[in-house]
Amino acid sequence: MERILIVEDSKFFGSMLMKRIEVESDFEVRWAQSYAEAEAFLNEQSAGFFLGLLDLNLPDAPMGEIVDLVLGRGIPAVVFTGDLTDEARDNIWSKNVVDYVLKEDAQSIDYILALIARIRRNKSVKVMVVDDSRLSRKIICDLLREHQYRILEAEDGVQAVKILEQHPDISLVLTDYNMPNMDGFELTRTIRAKFRQDELPIIGLSGQGSNFLSAQFIKNGANDFINKPFLNEEFYCRVNQSIEMVENINKIKDMSNKDYLTGLYNRRFFFEVGYKMFARSKRSSGSTTVALIDIDFFKKVNDTYGHDVGDKVLVALAGFLKDRFRETDVVSRFGGEEFCLLLADMGEEYVPDIFEDLLAKIAALETKAGDRIIRFTVSIGVCTRLGVTLEAMIKEADLLLYKAKSGGRNRVELDI
């Protein structure tokens, strides 16, 4: 388990921060109330600390020595203080900390919790920095590394386009304006030809200090613009806001596309993607398989054990199906205890064995209901013949499912 180190002499602030982290995350928290106590913790075991949350002025270390101690052990540090002069602020940033927080009210703790979550997510977030100046790239990349972002670098727009083709999962592009081969404006237009603003944010950068540049970046499709030189706080706020905008949009899309209970795609999304897959199979003379899966005697499970246990059965089956099939396949919950699969380019000769094996594996699944173990079976109807429409294939799979139910359940019926 990852741990967070709090070093804070205020019992009120320290206990409140510790409680919030323990309640709202899965981090283990160690709290030291002095430099000496923190040093003892770190001497005992400094490995495994995700982050240090440090009071800048401790009774036995009034000059911020705790920051040097924690950073010296390779632990990223967030500093909090009750008062911050310009000189103290510059001193804090010179130590390459993650951030600083003013101890003012409960919102300060809200900020710290959000920062911890942000940094944890950043470990899987790719950011591309595009600048022909090696020094400028280093400054920006160093700031991003403090927040644990995964970084890709490009010297100009041409190289950036190639990197983006190799890494289409990049979450943010930071680009300078004045570069050889392809400048920031052209790069922005090129990216926008493939990615919308709500899919891949772009932040323009320039040291020329011109309002015209910022306006042109925005007009060409950038989400934001930062003048160089900039304050670290401004840089982090703009970067985080751009990334969180896309994350929030994706959350909304997920909520509209997925079933709230199982996390599988819902019926609406199934047809949205299914029509495209079906049309592609028609054009390329490829194969498409539609399978309907229905839990046997599901009403009896609900009546005997309660709907909460029925929900556990649905979640267990959904998780199994999701893990069982490919990312390119569409696994959806159609409603109630019925699930629908859309599988592209699955060799017809393999289909019977795949679904017979699936049937056996599902029958072996175990779901806990208190002290009891619940087992269940399913019936499956599988249509492999490419029909006139997707709806026709689903109807055929439904007829085969009815045949499996009528034939005694815990069966697979195929059109092969």
Structure in words:
By secondary structure, the protein is α/β, with parallel strands linked by helices. It has three domains: 3-119, Rossmann fold (3-Layer(aba) Sandwich), CATH 3.40.50.2300; 123-252, Response regulator (Rossmann fold, 3-Layer(aba) Sandwich); 267-414, Reverse transcriptase/Diguanylate cyclase domain (Alpha-Beta Plaits, 2-Layer Sandwich), CATH 3.30.70. It is 48% helix and 21% strand. The protein has 15 helices and 17 strands. It has helices at 11-24, 35-44, 65-72, 86-94, 106-122, 134-146, 157-166, 184-192, 211-219, 232-257, 267-284, 298-305, 307-324, 351-363, 390-406; strands at 3-7, 28-32, 49-55, 77-81, 99-102, 126-130, 150-154, 172-176, 202-206, 224-227, 288-295, 330-335, 338-344, 367-369, 372-374, 378-383, 412-414. The model has no long low-confidence stretch (mean pLDDT 94).
Largest sheet: 5 strands, parallel
Number of structural units classed as domains = 3
Overall mean confidence score, pLDDT: 94
Structural class label: alpha/beta
Beta-strand portion reads: 15-25%
CATH superfamily of the largest domain, by name, is Reverse transcriptase/Diguanylate cyclase domain
Strand line-up in the sheet with most strands = 2-1-3-4-5
CATH fold field value of the largest domain: Alpha-Beta Plaits
Helix content range of the residues, please? 40-55%
Count of helices? 15
Question: What is the secondary structure topology, with strand pairs?
Answer:
Layout (H helix, E strand, L loop, with lengths): L2 E5 L3 H14 L3 E5 L2 H10 L4 E7 L9 H8 L4 E5 L4 H9 L4 E4 L3 H17 L3 E5 L3 H13 L3 E5 L2 H10 L5 E5 L7 H9 L9 E5 L4 H9 L4 E4 L4 H26 L9 H18 L3 E8 L2 H8 L1 H18 L5 E6 L2 E7 L6 H13 L3 E3 L2 E3 L3 E6 L6 H17 L5 E3 L2
Parallel strand pairs: 1-2, 1-3, 3-4, 4-5, 6-7, 6-8, 8-9, 9-10, 16-17
Antiparallel strand pairs: 11-13, 11-16, 12-13, 14-15
Helix pairs in contact: 2-3, 7-8, 12-13
